[in-house]
């Protein structure tokens, strides 16, 4: 049995609802696994089982080969971090970070040094005497991470840690958290409904649907090779091509999923299309077009040239926005 977390055939029922249905997953020592799925798929329940806050009806949770299914939360050596940080407002930043160290009976001097080290790690040196209310949302999440890491947990459990932040901050902090977890060698399980959050923070991904795990693998691999159309749609692919159009785009492929970025308006493009609709977005123009010999797809263009419905445009396909799916 390997080192790290092992979830083995875990099921949880609430009355008629099968919240978690025979889920098995492993998170090897030092790895970050994101469990990605829509609201209600059972990911929070699964996280609660791992944390020891929910007893499974079936199955076991083990760490480093030891069954911890019956071990109380505070004796598992795991730490939790939630979407809204949940810092103690009456304590300053240092007091928040030191919280678990005090409870563990760590000496004052050692606590002081560890708090400084953790505030450095999360990019907030010197902010120890600030109150949480005087920090930005992103800074508060960094403090929450420092607090979670303080007791050197063998496993960090993260429940949508970035979802209360705005988009640009989310991307930046996500990349920072990934680096911090890697630098500290932390083993982590992240649950989220946001594919960007999963992608920025984790090396490996498990996609859940209706209580079950439907795909696992390295994040880039799941991204490039979604198991089925539902997974593809959940990952942000907006169109599915099957049969001849798929084969025309990617020779030999039976099904191809496309992101809007898979087609770019370009006068030099080899494909001819009729514009069905066009809308301005912050990143450019988003089009729905009917491509000759392919079908209806989304496309992107530059804001300088917003076409009208029924206009003819030329398009260049971009493989980066395409994923080949197994035949259905
Ligand atoms: N304590 C409970 N009692 C009854 N049903 C519950 C309970 N907790 C969760 N459920 C149900 O179990 C299913 C899975 O819920 P869960 O919260 O794990 O999903 P989720 O993917 O985390 O969703 P969200 O992202 O919205 O939190 C849902 O159908 C939910 O209604």
Automatic annotation (TrEMBL):
Query: Cross-referenced PROSITE patterns, in alphabetical order?
Result: ABC_TRANSPORTER_1, ABC_TRANSPORTER_2
* Top-level taxon: Bacteria
Specify one Pfam family. ABC_tran
Q: Does the keyword RNA-binding apply?
A: no
UniProt KW keywords: ATP-binding, Cell membrane, Ion transport, Iron, Iron transport, Membrane, Nucleotide-binding, Transport
Q: What is its EC number?
A: 7.6.2.9
Q: What is this protein called?
A: ABC-type quaternary amine transporter
Q: Which organism is it from?
A: Luteipulveratus halotolerans
């Amino acid at each position: 049995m390997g080192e790290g977390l092992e979830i083995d055939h875990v099921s949880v029922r609430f009355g008629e609802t099968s919240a978690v249905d025979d889920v098995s997953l492993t998170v090897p020592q030092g790895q970050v696994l994101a469990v990605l799925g829509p609201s209600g798929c059972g990911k929070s329940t699964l996280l609660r089982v791992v944390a020891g806050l929910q007893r499974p009806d079936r199955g076991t949770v083990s760490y480093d080969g030891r069954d911890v299914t019956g071990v109380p939360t505070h004796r598992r050596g795991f730490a939790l971090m939630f979407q809204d940080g949940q810092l103690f407002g009456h304590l300053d930043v240092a007091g928040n970070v030191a919280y678990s160290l005090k409870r563990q009976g760590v000496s004052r001097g050692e606590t002081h040094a560890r708090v400084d080290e953790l505030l450095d790690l999360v990019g907030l040196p010197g902010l120890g005497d600030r109150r949480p209310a005087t920090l930005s949302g992103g800074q508060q999440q960094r403090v929450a991470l420092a607090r979670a890491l303080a007791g050197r947990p063998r496993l960090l459990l993260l429940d949508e840690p970035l979802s209360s932040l705005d988009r640009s901050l989310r991307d930046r902090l996500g990349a920072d958290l990934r680096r911090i977890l890697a630098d500290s060698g932390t083993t982590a399980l992240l649950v989220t409904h946001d594919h960007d959050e999963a992608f920025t923070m984790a090396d490996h991904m498990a996609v859940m649907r209706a209580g079950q795990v439907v795909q696992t693998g390295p994040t880039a691999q799941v991204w490039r090779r979604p198991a089925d159309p539902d997974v593809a749609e959940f990952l942000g692919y907006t169109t599915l091509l099957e049969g001849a159009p798929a084969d025309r785009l990617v020779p030999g492929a039976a099904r191809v999923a496309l992101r809007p970025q898979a087609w770019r308006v370009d006068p030099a493009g080899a494909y001819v299309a009729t514009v069905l609709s066009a809308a301005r977005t912050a990143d450019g123009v988003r089009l729905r077009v009917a491509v000759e010999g392919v079908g209806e797809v989304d496309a992107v263009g530059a804001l300088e040239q917003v076409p009208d419905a029924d206009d003819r445009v030329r398009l260049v396909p971009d493989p980066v926005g395409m994923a080949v799916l197994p035949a259905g």
